Amino acid sequence: MAIEATVQTTIYEAIGGQAAISRLVEAFYHEMDTAPEARDLRALHAADLAETKRVLILYLAQWMGGPNAYSAERGHPRLRARHMGFRIGTAERDAWMLCMVRALTVTVPDDAIRQAILGALAPLADWMRNQPETEAGAAPG
């Protein structure tokens, strides 16, 4: 009788750990700073992104199966509650996803892993919306 062992690799490990997460976050905020489609979303953030980047690195590392440093420092993510002070509608969700798609494209070469990450992020980004939709499908201005 043979015993089979399976080793599961987290996305965090598969993309290269903390260094890869840091590159992803840098690329994400570069997109947010430069993409015209993200101008309004970027305006919701502080001018100095150092702390925002640090927290996103912690969160994404934990979310992708890495160290639990985010929760150790900040408690339960409670993402929607933490973002309720910001107007997040369809346009903000779409701009966020656009920046993340572009950042993942330049930092995660494996298409299957990139698609897995995006597949998990898309419903999360949608859930973050806190503005009602109009009949035409757009958030009211």
From TrEMBL:
InterPro entries named in the record: GlbO/GLB3-like (IPR044203), Globin-like_sf (IPR009050), Globin/Proto (IPR012292), Hemoglobin_trunc (IPR001486)
Keywords, in A-Z order: Heme, Iron, Metal-binding, Transport
Classification via SUPFAM superfamilies: Globin-like
One Pfam family it belongs to: Bac_globin
Domain of life: Bacteria
Segments traversing the membrane: none
Residues annotated as signal peptide: none
Gene Ontology terms, MF aspect: heme binding; metal ion binding; oxygen binding; oxygen carrier activity
Family statement: Belongs to the truncated hemoglobin family. Group II subfamily.
Protein's recorded name: Hemoglobin
